[in-house]
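For practice. Any example?
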Amino acid sequence: MVSPQQAQQVYDEAECLFERREVEAAIAQMASEITSQLADTNPLVLAVMSGALIPAGILLSHLDFPLQIDYIHASRYRGETSGGELHWRVRPRYELAGRTVLIIDDILDEGLTLQAIIESCREQGAAEVYSAVLVKKLHQRNIGIEADFVGLEVADRYLFGYGMDYKEYLRNAPGIFAVKEH
């Protein structure tokens, strides 16, 4: 764990990759694509906590059609800067059988978390499962899973802001930032 002062130092030294207006324009574009594809499907939207809290909140305000909202809490990071075993804290409370499901997450990195969530939704009988991520990292470690809707693509760096954290801090940063490499 880091102190608030250490988190502030990381923030002060970080490189801003996307400012607020760029992030919100990308979210609006994703919303347009989602609306085109899912507006008539009565989707159940599952926000992956805690990272999707901010992007889902903004994205959902752009989706002007009937939908239901729930959240799930599954993580491989649990406050660390690298992922481990998938840990489920909260599963969906709605019945998924026969539903169109849209999973919203903050970032697609290796794809292990998203893949496990998608598989879980299918095992629960979801008719269709879509995924939307604010950020997709560009690297070779991805296990081959792609998101259906992607806001921004970035190089392989440790990011924070708009839901992504640095050791449980800085999710609220007003842009997408890369931690300074030492």
